[in-house]
């Protein structure tokens, strides 16, 4: 980035945020009267194409996009000005930017407006030097990364507050000090042969180009911390390097930020998968409940016709009245049974946000049994439910745990033919404050070679169209999300047992 013959530094910039601030900045650059800077706006990004700055840029023939990543493809891009005032956007820009593209926060617009006004009044050479220094200091201070300006003799000329905070020094202690002595306690510049460290500063002075290296250094917070250091040359009108700008990035913080973002994405994906799996389970439940509801409806129709014939006569005998009372009682019971089935389906299908609280694990299992009982009866399975007499309170989400057990029960049912045996047993593990639920079946079992893969997403041994391969993956995710453990015991041709252990809530004793 060499200065123009006029003494102005050419900058090709893009803007993220196409609102009013963007429009002002385009108008300011259009005046072409910025001292020492020859700014060219080569791209504008905003998620709303109707934003006034976005529309103005399009009229001016400037490249526009709704995805800021497209800006990184622009040739000779020197930097991006972030005008959205959104910290998440700023962090993502810093993380994804190419190495030689700088990021400046939204405050640059307001400052440049003020500096432009001041510049109209400052015409003397001395005043212009003050103005140039104000611009430089602002660009340094507004960046949240550590920035240090170093002279060719390795003395520090300027730093920002982030740098001072990192090294735990005052401004007076830093300015004029040699960088290698201040940071590493050395008597000479870092040298690969002597101390095994690649010095980006030396590389830039030798080649005149930007350089990069990773250094471990003591900070105010840690005895040793790794920083990614990038250097940029500052040249005079003859093209000679007269200063070097160093930018530090805390690698641990960078990795931590990416990890937290990825963790949020994974949790969001798991919630979406659970809801989709609930819809699949709902389809299975509806198919079996249709039969369960159809039987009482047929009975209601039969009793309705009988009562209609009895009421066709003018007088009812005592026996007929007693018979009608019996019919109405049976009809009421059947209607209540239908209502309970529908209520259970509606409750299960309702989409809710994840909410952890103390819940009785036995109640969750009971609700799953109520939803699947008719399916078990239709398949002519022997069913045994053995729950602890006392509640088993765990800290968890009812819907997620319900889906977890429902997947295991469905797998067990589908693995058996008529006459199979399904058992669900809950116990409180003595001395470990752990609740255990075991779901056993006498189905075809899982081959030994598949046991290591059953929790892998999309892994299934079922025929095409009979399974998605996500059921056990979701079960594993839910159990781990509840700080629990899951294990499986299976033998081909004999059956399978899944054992889930969850930590009991602190309130278990209180509730009991």
From TrEMBL:
It comes from the Bacteria. It catalyses: ATP + protein L-histidine = ADP + protein N-phospho-L-histidine. This is histidine kinase. Gene3D superfamilies: 1.10.287.130, Histidine kinase-like ATPase, C-terminal domain, PAS domain. It is an enzyme of class 2 (transferase). Keywords: ATP-binding, Kinase, Nucleotide-binding, Phosphoprotein, Transferase, Two-component regulatory system. One of its GO terms (molecular function) is ATP binding. Pfam families: HATPase_c, HisKA, PAS_4. Its EC number is 2.7.13.3. It comes from Desulfosarcina alkanivorans.
